[in-house]
Amino acid sequence: MSNLHRFAVVTGASSGIGDAYAERMAERGYDLILVARRRDRLEDVAKRIKIKTNRAVEIVTADLSDANDLLRIEALLTEREDIDVLINNAGLGALGPTSKVAADALENLIRINILALTRLTRAVLPGFLRRNTGTIINIASMIAVMPTPSGAGYSGSKAYVLNFTRSLQMELAKTNIVVQAVLPGPVRTEFFEASGLTAAPFPNELFMSAEQLVDTALQALAQGELVCFPSLENASLWTDLENARIALSRALMQSGSPATRYSEKAL
Ligand SMILES: NC(=O)c1ccc[n+]([C@@H]2O[C@H](COP(=O)([O-])OP(=O)(O)OC[C@H]3O[C@@H](n4cnc5c(N)ncnc54)[C@H](OP(=O)(O)O)[C@@H]3O)[C@@H](O)[C@H]2O)c1
């Protein structure tokens, strides 16, 4: 990542993980564009970071579930030539049994976790490709590989983020554009509150701080680790899963005929 008078855009920068990314990117010399809905919270984050790092910090309020606001942020990403990093962090959980979560809450989750992340990524790509440089960090969740009965929409949305990111990595393999998926476990933020739970469904010892998470993910990025499970000690578990997936992919490509176990007529 080159950072000479370059901007990093952080969505969901008004709290938690986005706030921590903003601070760490400014400490690395980036100027910032911070996006979220709550202007007062963005102003607090911007003020603190400016004092601490002396970097330029721009605030753009936007509701990423709103089509017009999303178009406005896409236009900003498309038009500016000085953006080097996009951190797609804004997200929420809409947790609970699917029959009990409001349909509108699920749609909102899809708009932010999937649609906004996809459109914003799409918006930076032409400029990144023209300049043959750029970094996209997509915040997924460990839940992407842990389907759960209390967060079907959330798990599905983060599995999308993982697959979207992996496919982009392949697509951009011959460029200098780097795309990382970060899959945190529980992190101490406003997330569970914002996702409709009164208490987090994990014991305290499973949580890390937002700063620990971001430091770990940025260290992984520096090491070229483009799928980062921040607390996974035995990294070969991910490699094993990947190898199994590759074996399945190969097997899926071997025939266009129905598998023999389906050949018996049903009743
Ligand atoms: N905390 C965890 O345990 C955990 C674990 C794995 C993954 N994650 C992921 O980490 C990311 C950040 O979450 P967090 O833990 O830092 O939670 P958080 O403190 O609740 O932060 C969520 C951020 O998203 C923004 N946001 C939500 N709805 C938005 C909208 N409609 N338009 C624009 N911005 C919106 C919020 O800003 P405004 O409310 O000001 O708009 C806020 O800045 C999410 O993608 C989440 O899925 C979190």
Write up this protein:
- The protein is an alpha/beta fold.
- The chain is 46% helix and 15% strand.
- It is built from eight helices and nine strands.
- The strands form two sheets. A seven-stranded parallel sheet has the order 3-2-1-4-5-6-9, with helices on both faces.
- The protein is globular.
- NADP nicotinamide-adenine-dinucleotide phosphate (NAP) binds at residues 12-18, 36-38, 41, 62-65, 89-92, 112, 139, 141, 184, 186-187, 189-191, 194.
Please count the beta strands (DSSP E, at least 2 residues each): 9
CATH classification class: Alpha Beta
Average predicted local confidence, pLDDT: 95
- How much helix is in the residues? 40-55%
Assembly state (oligomeric): single chain
What small ligands are held by the chains? NADP nicotinamide-adenine-dinucleotide phosphate
User: What is the N-to-C order of secondary-structure elements (H for helix, E for strand)?
Assistant: EHEHEHEHEHEEHEHEH
Measure the end-to-end span: 61 Å
The radius of gyration is 20 Å
What descriptors fit this protein?
267 residues, alpha/beta, Rossmann fold, seven-stranded parallel beta sheet, 8 helices, 9 strands, binds NADP nicotinamide-adenine-dinucleotide phosphate
Write the layout of secondary structure elements.
Layout: E1 7-11, H1 16-27, E2 31-36, H2 39-53, E3 57-61, H3 67-79, E4 83-88, H4 103-131, E5 134-139, H5 152-171, E6 177-182, E7 187-188, H6 191-194, E8 208-209, H7 210-222, E9 227-228, H8 236-252
Parallel strand pairs: 1-2, 1-4, 2-3, 4-5, 5-6, 6-9, 7-8
Helix pairs in contact: 1-2, 1-7, 3-4, 4-5
The structure holds NADP nicotinamide-adenine-dinucleotide phosphate (NAP).
Residues 12-18, 36-38, 41, 62-65, 89-92, 112, 139, 141, 184, 186-187, 189-191, 194 line the site of NADP nicotinamide-adenine-dinucleotide phosphate (NAP).
